[in-house]
Structure formats: structure tokens, C-alpha cells
Amino acid sequence: MCYYKMNKLQESLEAVQVSLSENPKSISSLYVEGLIHKELGNISESMNSFTKLLSIDSDNRDALYQLGKINHQKGNYREALESFDKVLDFRPRDNKVLKAKGISHDELEEYKEASEALKKSINVDDEIIFNDRGVALSRLGYNHKAIDSYRRALASNPKYAICWFNLGKALFRVGDLKDALTAFQTSTEINPNNRSAWNNRGVTLRQLNRLEESLDCYERALSLKKEYAWAWHNKGYALELLDRPREALDSYETALNHKPASSEHGGAEWEKLKKDTEDAIARLKKIIGE
Fold first, then answer.
1. Mean per-residue pLDDT of the chain
2. Which of 117, 145, 170, 224 is most deeply buried (CB count within 10 A of its CB)?
3. pLDDT tens digits for 244-278?
4. Is-contact 96 65, C-beta < 8 A?
5. Per-residue pLDDT tens digits for 138-152
């Protein structure tokens, strides 16, 4: 792969073929082999690599897309559409594939189908633009304008999980806790693997004085990442409010043991959490009598 990135195609092809001689079913090696053959103009060999890959992993998005693009270039528009439609069966909002599908339909003079595919692609573009615009506005402190932008994105795609999460954060900042909770709930229903959404859902429930429910959310966040310091801290705070000081102390102390990587949270965020957690530990030790 290193040779490939350096545009040393022949050396890269030789290296990947050595890899395939050792492991003929390597998905990544077959994919890179297909890309290299394509760039070298070896179209039949490229198609063969992607076809082998798909015999191992029939739902491989990248191989299906590449095979579709090659068939389109060869004028095999029906075969191209078969590949694109397979991707859209499991990724119906794949922007690149929608655009490619529209172009293949256009070549077949199927203008209605082309228009539908390209319209869906434009809608995907719109939802991404409005979500990104909302993020930028929120960073500048324009949370009400950000909320409007997120809602426009969600009008295009109601299953846009990260946008529901972003909307929840903006609503929370302006004090609209009930709608914020709805947004976080929707986000976690669509994508239950977003630990930050579970954590924020818990914080919102805490602000609504639904403390036991908030604990469940922190536990869900921690089940996704045991070293999630923010969830440990928030769990400790909820336990403290529930008058369970020893359990709260354990959670706070655990939070301090899990300093995040600098790439995950800025140093200032961690320093603030660390100070708040140390203050809470000192407060609880006085209560417990340690």
C-alpha cells in the first residue's frame, strides 16, 4: 500500500501479489490489486480482482462501486447499474453511488430514473451541508440559527443520527431540555453505538431530575467504552444527587484514571473535568468522613 500511495504502481502490484500468494482471500489485497490494475489500464485484470473479492464478500461496497464504474466506462450500463443497485440495497443514501447510477441511467436514455437518482444525491448533499452549517453556527454561539439548520437537514433525512445528536446539543444549550431529550433519544435509537449521545442523553435526564434514568444512559455509554471519563464523572454526579456517596466516590475516582487521548478531547476540556472531579472527591470525603 505504501508503494501505491507513492504512485509506484508496478512495485505496488508486485508487493500485493506476493501478499495474495500467501493469503489469496485477503479482501484488502484484492481491492488494492484491482485499483492498481485499473490505473495501469489492465481493465480485465482489474475486474477479475474485484469479482474475486465479491465472491468472498458479496456486499463489499467499494468493490461493487469500482466494478460498476468500470462497466460504465466500458459502456456496459446495465451491468454497472446492477452493481450500483446492490450497494443501494444496503446503503440507500450513498452519495457517490447515487450520482453514478444517475449517469448510467442517463446514458441509457432513462431520464426519469436518472433524475430520481440525481435528485436523491442532491438531497444527501443538502443534508450534509445543513448539518455542517449547523455545527459551524453552534461553534460561533448562534445556537438558534444552528437549530434551524439541523432541522432543515433532518427534513431531508429523518434518520440522520449524528444530526439528531447535534440538534440535541444545540437545544440543550438554549435550555430547551425536553426537545433536547427527544433529539438525543432519537439519535441513540437510530445509532445505539454513539457513546456521546448516550452520555448527553443522561445529562439531559439529570437536568430534568430523572436521575435513575440518567444512570442507565451512563451505563450504556460505559458499555461502549469503559474508559469514558466523562460518563464516569456524570455517573458519579447522579449518584451523589441520589445520596449514594460511596458509589459516587468510586465513579469519580475511576474518572480520574481514564485521561483521554489529546485527539479525543482538548487539554482544556480534560483539565476542567479533572478539577471538577477532584473537587467532588474532596467534597464527598468530607461527607463520608475519610
1. 92
2. 170
3. 999 999 999 999 999 887 666 667 888 999 999 99
4. yes
5. 999 999 999 999 999
Burial 254-281 (b: 16+ CB within 10 A, else e): bbeeeebeeeeeeeeebeebeeebeebb
Burial of 26 (0-12, 13-18, 19+ CB in 10 A): middle
Residue 112 to residues 106, 117, 149, Cα–Cα distance (Å): 9, 9, 30
CA distance 120 to 98: 7
Which residue ranges form the domains of the chain, and what is each CATH number?
208-290 (1.25.40.10)
109 backbone φψ class: left, alpha, beta (φ>0; ψ -120 to 50): left
**In this structure, what is the dihedral angle of CA atoms 39, 64, 87, 81, given to the nearest 10 degrees?**
90
Q: How far apart are CA 104 and CA 221, in angstroms?
A: 44
d(CA 92, CA 98) in angstroms, rounded, equals 8
The three-point CA angle 279-282-285 to 5° equals: 150
| Helix, strand, coil % over all residues of the chain, rounded to 5 | 80, 0, 20
| Contact in structure between 165 and 196 (CB atoms under 8 Å) | yes
Within 8 A by CB and 6+ apart from 121, the residues are 95, 98, 99, 102
Give the span between the Cα atoms of 41 and 248, in whole angstroms.
Answer: 64
